């Protein structure tokens, strides 16, 4: 009996440690690429807000291209090498080191290249690290609990990102007396948020490396490199053998473009169409992240009960309904009434997509398939914002431009319908 209790305790510790890594790494996209550092870069480092927005867009596009190119081959190589955690460690160190370097970004236009270089490197480290982190999911969770663990992890990610953002705002950004006596004249309090991200990520990533088990070592590095690349080439040549996976990745590529565009332009829409001030937009960003985290955690049970495909379809349906209503809404009150429940369906779309990929991937190809999963999230990342910009300009209307997001979500919904859920047969 003691050994059984001890074994259950170790399994629980392994699962919790895996979820805590989501709490750890979400600090980077929340503080660096979405709220604090992105705003600092466009408003104080670049020559102008317009120039900063353009430069930031180019940097994010370069990061997306690198992620799309590197994720599939690295995933294939990792499958041959066996272990995931060494890869997670390498890309965690890259993201943390890049965050530290961002501290040295002065509020001067001469530091634009410096800042973008390390934002790109940090983004690549974050995203490719997720390839191997996601590939651990089916290794540690039984099939009947995979959806729950994915949802809880995603919920922990939203919570961790918001917790780190709250510390950044209270301790450094929105205070007259920043911690550690930092000099506001040289933007030290804002720059220090990058150091906060580095410490946060490093500290909360430790449980994964200490208590989450890894796969046994496979081939040696050179053999893994050679065989992994050959396996990837073979997979792409014979993609018809993985038809269900290919169809899912195509559907996800479309609806994730819509979802990412929603995140990128939601605040802009709130400010431009509903006249919300900057502090209101930040409050909106925090609120929708809270509801997204609640949705990811609460829908996790549904994922295991009815399957990830049906969960994704329900979530996309909710996004389409509330998003369509938001296009017709007038006034801030209606914006808040509709936007907050919309957030409930954001997290489940992402979390159930991860668990669906874990169920579809062959056991000996999980990291490779999650590499293709990352590729599907970045390959056409430019398309949603580009179409929105063209449509907004053509019709001179933010509302019409935002309607393109609904098109992406609806098309992804339709493409997902014929994909077979391996857990439920055709359903």
Structure write-up:
- There is one protein chain.
- The chain is an all-alpha fold and 427 residues long.
- The chain has 2 domains: 1-237, Growth Hormone, Chain: A (Up-down Bundle), CATH 1.20.1250; 241-427, Growth Hormone, Chain: A (Up-down Bundle), CATH 1.20.1250.20.
- The relative contact order is 0.14.
- The chain is globular, with a radius of gyration of 21 Å.
- α16 (383-395) packs antiparallel against α17.
- The protein has helices spanning 2-25, 27-45, 49-81, 85-102, 112-140, 146-173, 188-211, 221-237, 243-274, 278-298, 300-306, 308-328, 332-343, 346-360, 366-378, 383-395, 398-416.
Short structural description:
It is built from 17 helices and no strands. It is an all-alpha fold. The chain is globular, with a radius of gyration of 21 Å.
What is the string of helix and strand elements? HHHHHHHHHHHHHHHHH
From the alpha carbons, calculate the radius of gyration and give it in angstroms: 21 Å
The number of helical elements comes to: 17
Return the CATH architecture of the largest domain. Up-down Bundle
Domain module tally: 2
As a percent range, the share of strand residues is under 5%
Distance between the termini: 40 Å
Morphology call: globular
Which helices and strands appear, and what pairs or packs with what?
Elements: H1 2-25, H2 27-45, H3 49-81, H4 85-102, H5 112-140, H6 146-173, H7 188-211, H8 221-237, H9 243-274, H10 278-298, H11 300-306, H12 308-328, H13 332-343, H14 346-360, H15 366-378, H16 383-395, H17 398-416
């Amino acid at each position: 009996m003691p050994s059984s209790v001890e074994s259950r305790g170790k399994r629980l510790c392994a699962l919790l440690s895996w979820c805590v890594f989501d709490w750890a790494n979400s600090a980077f996209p929340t503080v660096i690429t979405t709220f604090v550092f992105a705003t600092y870069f466009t408003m104080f480092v670049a020559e102008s807000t317009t120039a900063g927005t353009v430069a930031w867009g180019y940097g994010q596009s370069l990061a997306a291209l690198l992620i799309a190119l590197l994720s599939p081959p690295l995933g294939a190589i990792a499958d041959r090498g066996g272990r995931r955690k060494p890869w997670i460690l390498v890309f965690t160190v890259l993201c943390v080191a890049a965050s530290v370097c961002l501290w040295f970004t002065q509020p001067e236009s001469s530091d634009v290249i410096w800042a973008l270089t390390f934002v790109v490197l940090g983004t690549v480290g974050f995203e490719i690290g997720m390839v191997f982190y996601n590939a651990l999911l089916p290794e540690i969770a039984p099939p009947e609990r995979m959806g729950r663990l994915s949802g809880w992890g995603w919920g922990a990610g939203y919570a961790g990102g918001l917790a780190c953002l709250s510390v950044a705002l209270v301790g450094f950004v929105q205070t007259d007396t920043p911690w550690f006596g930092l000099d506001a004249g040289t933007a030290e309090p804002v720059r220090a948020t990058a150091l906060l991200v580095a410490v946060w990520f490093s500290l909360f990533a430790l449980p994964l490396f200490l208590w989450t088990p890894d796969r046994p070592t496979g081939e040696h590095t050179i053999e893994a490199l050679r065989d992994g690349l050959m396996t990837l080439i073979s997979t792409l040549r014979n993609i018809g053998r993985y038809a269900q996976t290919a169809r899912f990745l195509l559907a996800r590529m479309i609806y994730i473009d819509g979802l990412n565009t929603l995140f990128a332009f939601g605040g802009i829409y709130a400010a431009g169409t509903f006249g919300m001030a900057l502090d209101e937009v930040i409050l909106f960003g925090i609120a929708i992240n809270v509801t997204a985290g609640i949705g990811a955690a609460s829908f996790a049970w549904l994922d295991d009960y009815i399957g990830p495909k049906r969960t994704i379809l329900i979530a996309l349906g909710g996004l389409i309904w509330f998003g369509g209503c938001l296009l017709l809404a007038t006034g801030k009150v209606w914006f808040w009434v509709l936007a907050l429940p919309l957030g409930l369906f954001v997290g489940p779309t992402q979390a159930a997509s991860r668990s669906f990929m874990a169920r579809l991937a062959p056991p000996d190809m999980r990291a490779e398939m999650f590499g293709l999963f990352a590729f599907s999230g970045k390959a056409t990342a430019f398309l949603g914002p580009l179409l929105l910009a063209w449509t907004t300009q053509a019709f001179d209307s933010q509302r019409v431009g935002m309607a393109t997001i609904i098109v992406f979500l609806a098309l992804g919904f339709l493409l997902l319908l014929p994909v077979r859920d391996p857990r439920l047969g055709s359903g």
